[in-house]
Amino acid sequence: MHVEPPAHAPQSLKDFAKHYLMIVLGILTAIGIEQAVESAHHRAQAAHATRDVEEELQSNLREARSVLAANTRRLAALESVRESLDQDLQKKDLSIETFRSRIAAIDVGAALPALRRDAWDAAIASQALAYVEAGKVRRYSEGYTAQRDTMTAVMATFTMGNWAAQLLGVGVDAKLGKVDHAALLKALGTYELTLKSVAGNERELEKALEGAVGEASGEAGRH
Predict the structure, then answer these.
(1) Domain count of the chain?
(2) What confidence score (pLDDT) does residue 220 get?
(3) Which domain holds residue 64?
């Protein structure tokens, strides 16, 4: 800030007070303008971070719903295979062809969500969250924490139970001409429990993201 000095020394106390007041007002005006510019910059940062984080959470919510729907369909197909096996046993159909067809109908695997957190990490790195309303930041944080915890639980659940090895073993035996309904039913039971647990975790994630997005964007209760 540049302050223009008086052209001559003050000739009186009144003259001095006038020049002093002009300097003080100039300094206060400059500080006020600087603070206003900085405040506008912080508001812009907060608005940008809020928009990006909410869009990212919305995208993750769509992804969570998509994989949950896929796993729900997979569970329904698995139930259908199990019912067919029960019918085969009731009809005493122990043919290798029928048995192989039941194994071929099993949709092995599970849909896992690909969840992003780039916008959240960027907002933290830029310190933009310091200028966002505390309630919003808390809701966002809860959503991203749910993402992390859900993926940890899903991955741990998916690798438990040895269902993959059981199904593989039954499939290899079937190729060699061995029919073992009991082994297949046990493998399907373990696999079904795993899928239900994965789907349950993903359902909890969906609720958490609905809370983070719905409350943050003023749309709570829409779902």
Answers:
(1) 1
(2) 41
(3) 13-103+114-216
- Judge whether 83 lies within some domain: yes
Tell me if 116 sits within 8 A of 55, measured CB to CB.
no
Q: Does 96 reside within a domain?
A: yes
3-class DSSP string for the chain = CCCCCCCCCCCCHHHHHHHHHHHHHHHHHHHHHHHHHHHHHHHHHHHHHHHHHHHHHHHHHHHHHHHHHHHHHHHHHHHHHHHHHHHHHHCCCCCHHHHHHHHHCCCCCCCCCCCCCHHHHHHHHCCHHHHCCHHHHHHHHHHHHHHHHHHHHHHHHHCCCCHHHHHHHHHHHHHCCCCCHHHHHHHHHHHHHHHHHHHHHHHHHHHHHHHHHHHHCCCCCCC
Residue 6 forms part of a structural domain: no
Task: Say yes or no to pLDDT of 219 above 50.
Answer: no
Would residue 55 count as lying in a domain?
yes
157-169 pLDDT per residue, tens: 887 778 889 999 9
